[in-house]
Specification:
Pfam families: MazG. It is an enzyme of class 3 (hydrolase). Its EC number is 3.6.1.9. With about 270 residues, the protein is mainly α. About 75% of the residues lie in helices and about 0% in strands. The chain is extended, with a radius of gyration of 25 Å.
Length: about 270
């Protein structure tokens, strides 16, 4: 095993051998031996986000490494599954390969390829629904998803069986209702009720985004990036004055924020022109 582990160019067999060696109970790495599915799961999520981050930044020089890190997570789980007699890398690959064939009858079956992307999405969802037959509507929406993304997936599942507002106006009415309940919780109720009402409002916000055709996770990432960018401009402006944000006040920083916002809008207008 050590021969293939040390030999460049071994590709996937080399990576699988390296992971098996690291997990060897007698000669492996103590840290790797101690890990289990639960302890590795956070790293898996983190690596997936790092791939998404590289894509969002157009950091293509980083993508190979980030995808390798994500692949390592799959290999890690596969090795632990093999040790417990549950599954292995081959069975994982075979299962997803068969799923792709089954869900693309217009490629590997008798179905026609002459249909729109929207129809293909509908067919994909129908195939998934058939696979979920006998389960509850919301079963299988992963608990480990970011809460905002999971909210949208739960709402989409419920909408497929008719549990949904018919139009955006109804969602906006619900948002106003939740805002009033949030104010009441702030003024008259305790922290637990306040947290619950805040959660309800965020859930409705996710639903509003869904009805508007906006990905709320992507929209919030954009807002985070905008906030980071503009606050950096505040810090730069203050640094030119020989001060830090802690040595400024809200009024001054608000003015600098507005100036940064105005510059962005002007830049956007010029780029459109």
């Amino acid at each position: 095993m050590d021969d293939i582990c040390r030999t460049p160019g071994g590709g996937l067999p080399r990576l699988l051998a390296i992971m098996a060696r690291l997990r060897d109970p007698e000669t492996g790495c103590p840290w790797d031996i101690e890990q289990d599915f639960a302890s590795i799961a956070p790293y898996t999520i983190e690596e997936a986000y790092e791939v998404a981050d590289a894509i969002e930044r157009d950091a293509w020089d980083e993508m190979e490494g980030e995808l390798g890190d994500l692949l390592l997570q799959v290999v890690y789980h596969a090795q632990m599954g093999e040790e417990e007699g549950r599954f292995d890398f081959h069975s994982i690959a075979e299962r997803v390969a068969q799923k792709m064939v089954d869900r693309h009858p217009h490629i590997w079956g008798d179905a026609s390829r002459e249909k729109s992307a929207e129809q293909q999405i509908a067919d994909w969802e129908a195939a998934k629904a058939k696979e979920r037959a006998g389960r509850r509507t919301l079963d299988g929406v992963a608990l480990g998803l970011p809460a905002l993304l999971r909210a949208v997936k739960l709402q989409n599942r419920a909408a497929r069986v008719g549990f949904d507002w018919p139009e955006t106006t109804a969602v906006l009415d619900k948002l106003r209702e939740e805002a009033a309940e949030l104010v009441e919780a702030r003024d008259r109720l305790g922290p637990a009720a306040l947290a619950e009402e805040m959660g309800d409002m965020l859930f409705v916000m996710a639903n509003l985004a869904r009805h508007l055709g906006v990905d709320p996770e992507e929209a919030l990432r954009g807002a985070n990036a905008k906030f980071t960018r503009r606050f950096a401009e505040i810090e730069d402006a203050l640094a030119r004055l020989g001060r830090s944000p802690a040595e400024s006040d809200l009024a001054e920083m608000d003015a600098l924020w507005d100036a940064a916002k105005a510059r962005e809008k002007m830049s956007d207008k010029k780029s459109r022109d």
